[in-house]
Design brief:
Helix 1 crosses helix 2. It is globular, with a radius of gyration of 16 Å. Helices cover about 25% and strands about 30% of the residues. The strands form 2 sheets. It has a 7-stranded mixed beta sheet with strand order 1-2-3-4-5-9-6, sandwiched between helices. It has a two-stranded antiparallel ribbon with strand order 7-8. The protein has 4 helices and 9 strands, in the order βααβββαβαββββ. It is an alpha+beta fold.
Length: about 170
């Protein structure tokens, strides 16, 4: 299947919410706040929100059905071990579409966007998320620190990993 990545628009917000609900990352009570935060990220020129579709899925309004999404975040100041800069932020892929390269394509597209703006990219992840750690290592990310919190992100199980990558040489 061919993965199609594009910049999210406001009309994608309900689909992004449904993806997080289906993946168990969001409950019904948090839908309103989550929708508002995604809308704010889409409107913020210092951030990027992407959606992924599979070209062979049933199209909705002439585009592939959305099966995943991802965003970036820019922190203007450092906090502890976490420096200021552009971070890979949320990413969710529908469970039935995992292990098909969707997360990798979303991450590559976010990194291409960051490399146009910065020499370093940052990422925080739960220390137990071995799949994400392995994916990001293939993209040049190295562990910088471990801790219970980086910027506003806390972790189930209490330990997160801060990773950083340098823009590849042309």
């Amino acid at each position: 299947m061919t993965v199609v990545i594009r910049t999210a628009v406001e009309a994608d917000v309900p689909g992004i919410v449904e993806i997080d609900l289906a993946a168990g990352r969001l409950d019904g009570a948090g839908k309103g706040n989550f929708s508002s935060s995604i809308s704010a990220a889409i409107a913020d020129p210092a951030r990027l929100v992407l959606v992924a579709g599979m070209a062979q899925c049933t199209p909705r309004e002439g585009t592939p059905a959305v099966v995943g999404w991802a965003k970036t975040h820019q922190w203007d100041s450092a906090e502890g071990a976490a420096p200021a800069g552009h971070y890979l932020a949320g990413i969710t892929v529908l469970p039935d579409f995992r292990r098909r390269g969707v997360a990798g394509k979303l991450t590559e597209a976010r990194l291409a966007w960051i490399w146009q703006r910065a020499d370093r990219a940052w990422y925080v992840v739960n220390a137990r998320n071995q799949a994400s750690l392995a994916l990001h290592r293939t993209l040049g990310f190295l562990e910088v620190a471990r801790g219970p919190r980086f910027h506003s992100v806390t972790f189930d199980g209490g330990e997160g990993v801060l990773l950083g990558a340098a823009r590849p040489l042309a």
